[in-house]
Amino acid sequence: MSLDLATESGVGVRTQVDGGVLAQLTLSHPDLVLGPTLGRAPEITVEPEYWTDADDDRTVLFITASGDEFGAFETALGVDPTVADPVLVDRAPGRRSYRLALTDRAITLVDATAAVGGRLRTCASCRTGWRFRIRFPDRDALVAFNDRCRDRDVSVSVEHLRPADADANAPVALTEKQRELLTVAYEEGYFDVPRRISQDELADRLGVSKSAVSQRLRRAIAQLCGSTFD
Q1: Phi and psi for 173 in degrees, rounded to 5?
Q2: How far apart are the first and last CA of the chain?
Q3: Please, which pLDDT band fits residue 227 given cuts at 50, 70 and 90?
Q4: What SUPFAM superfamilies does the record tag this protein with (predicted)?
Q5: Is residue 205 part of a domain?
């Protein structure tokens, strides 16, 4: 990845604001921070606030959790091996904030993001783990990030990509696999009434499993709906 020298300010500042890609990724692994808790209380949405180093050399993380039922979430927090000493520090209707200490078992990927020149835009929990939105200097940086995740056995699913300097209201690009599936599904009559092809037949046509077709369809349609309604 190349960083050009910006001269307008009169000071040597490298820049990577031109070009780049914005990627929305779903990351999954049992030992990702709060992974066990998210699996036990999927109805609660968690967003990190910030973390810092404490005097006892522990990393302290502050999070905000949103939802209606916090009982199962707090029970799961108490036995989650990726965190220790959970403390409720604030609450409001439908929202609670907690302070947690990360354990040695916890996997974090902030260092991997920074190492490839990425910038974390947003991070929130989802039903399968964590959903990151990261701006990468280029596609090579995204590939390098994926490699670092693979080295830690973290599963990475690319939900969508778009040029980082595109209009924020522009539709988000589908992944190649999503685009291929939707194209075949449309051409073969999956969306017709009545349908002219089933998910089983789509799977055979594309050489993938039925579960892969089902998941890919849901993600692609959800992505298109999100791009439209946002």
Answers
A1: -70, 140
A2: 31
A3: low
A4: Sigma3 and sigma4 domains of RNA polymerase sigma factors
A5: yes
Residues 121 and 92 in one domain: no
Considering Cα of 64, then 67, then 70, then 75, what sign does the dihedral take? Answer: negative
Burial class (CB in 10 A: 0-12, 13-18, 19+), 101: middle
Q: Is residue 1 part of a domain?
A: no
Give the end of a domain, one of 102, 130, 151: 102
For residue range 60-113, what is the model confidence (pLDDT) as tens digits? 999 999 988 899 999 999 999 999 999 999 999 999 999 999 999 999 998 999
- State the Cα–Cα distance between residues 160 and 173, nearest whole angstrom: 6
Ramachandran region, residue 108 (left: φ > 0; alpha: ψ -120 to 50; beta: rest):
beta
Average predicted confidence (pLDDT) for the chain: 85
**How far is the CA of 96 from the CAs of 26, 73, 101, in angstroms?**
24, 11, 17
pLDDT value for 178 = 81
Bridge partners (DSSP) of residue 53 are: 59
Same-domain pairing of 39 and 137: no
Question: What's the domain count of the chain?
Answer: 3
Q: Which domain holds residue 153?
A: 16-28+107-163
Q: Are residues 43 and 59 in the same domain?
A: yes
**Beta-carbon contacts of residue 167 (< 8 Å; ≥ 6 apart):** none
Within a domain: 185 = yes
